[in-house]
Amino acid sequence: MISLAGRDILQSWGKFVFTGVGLGLLIGATLTMAGVYRGMVEDARVLLDNSGADLWVVQQGTLGPYAESSSLYDDTWRGIVAMPGVERAANVTYLTMQVARGERDVRAMVVGVVPGGPGEPGQPGFLVAGRHITRSHYEAVADVATGFALGDEIRVRRNLYRVVGLTRRMVSSGGDPMVFVPLKDAQEAQFLKDNDAIVRQRRRTAQNPAFARPGVPGLLDAVIASQAVNPFVNAVLVRVAPGHSPEEVAAPIRRWKRLQVYTRAQMEEILIAKLTATSSRQIGMFLVILAIVSAAIVAFIIYTLTMGKLREIAVLKLIGTRNTTIASMILQQALGLGVIGFLVGKVAATLWAPFFPKNVVLETGDAARAIVAVLAICALASVMAIRAALKVDPAEAVGG
């Protein structure tokens, strides 16, 4: 039996291959979009893993510290660490900003941590070079994705910090690399005012009669000094002692400390279901659009190839070839185009994924679902060409 699909592919292999490559690039873009979403989910989970916490204690009524702003007094941890089942508790601040090194700056999440080793919650779990922060001021540990090196001087707000350690895969939920600085410095940077604002605030305070009491010398100076101090943090990270469940420890903190406490499962739900909800819907829309465009391309090329061989189809009908055989030949051609497109797309996505600025995770499960979807789209796209082929009159084979 004559293989119409194979014969037509050999006769117009250039058009077929170039169409497969074009379709493959679209499929590669689709796989990459799915990988971007998977990367966002992985970054959120990595953020929680790297925090070293079992519980996140934040301001009551907020989804902090990652999805919303949260503000707690920095002495709150003292009461929390005394609660039953709490092994360790540490303050932490988060601030996403531009960190400068010379003329270049990097978008990063600046994390304020308690100086010490990796045992404290919030500290980077491991280093690829250098050491942890040991001093209370002007030292930093940076993720290698920032491009900083050991010994570099980086600027956070007004102050300069020397990079004493490098870590890897310490990122925010948005994929921004982290820079760790001492907690006191981070508190200052988070609410730092410019010089003009400080002068105006001091003048405003000096003009307030309440601070000019004759019997209380030094009151004005004390108030002005207090305004330069930031006594707040964004969260308290808690590590649960062995033998206690996170929810068992969280319940009394919520009840007696009047604070919001999230477990790992709850925080993951906030980051993935709420923080990335809009992005996931947007990516979903792109996937739908790319699927429609891919189907249109396959339908157009298969229909064009079919219209170019109507006389051959008429000859096949004249010699008694069944409609199901003709339909299967056109379907094979469409599926072959889909297989070529998928292979090109998978290779392309694998090659360009490492060059994306954010994390792209290409999962085997997504690839398996993609090949099924591609073959289904190609099968549907061939319907119009099959209908046109089945309407061909065998008499056209002997027509003038």
Describe this structure in words.
With 400 residues, this protein is of the alpha+beta class. The chain has a domain of 161 residues. It has 13 helices and twelve strands. The strands form two sheets. Strands 1, 3, 4, 5, 6, 7, 8, 9, 11 and 12 form a ten-stranded mixed beta sheet that branches. Strands 2-10 form a two-stranded antiparallel sheet. Strand 3 and strand 4 form a beta hairpin. Helix 2 runs antiparallel to helix 8. The longest helix is centred in the N-terminal third of the chain and has 39 residues. The chain is elongated and about 105 Å long. The protein starts with a helix and ends in a 10-residue tail after the last helix.
Provide a short characterization of the protein structure.
With 400 residues, the chain is α+β, with helices and mostly antiparallel strands. 50% of the residues lie in helices and 17% in strands.
Question: Percent of residues in beta strands?
Answer: 15-25%
Overall form: elongated
What class, by secondary structure content?
A: alpha+beta
Give the SSE string: HHEEHEEEEEEEHHHEEHEHHHHHH
Mean pLDDT: 83
The largest β sheet comes out as: 10 strands, mixed
Low-confidence segments? 223-227
Overall strand count: 12
Oligomeric state of shown chains: single chain
Distance between the termini: 26 Å
| Number of helical stretches of at least 4 residues | 13
The share of residues in helices is: 40-55%
Give the radius of gyration: 32 Å
Index terms:
13 helices; 12 strands; ten-stranded mixed β-sheet; alpha+beta; 400 residues; two-stranded antiparallel sheet
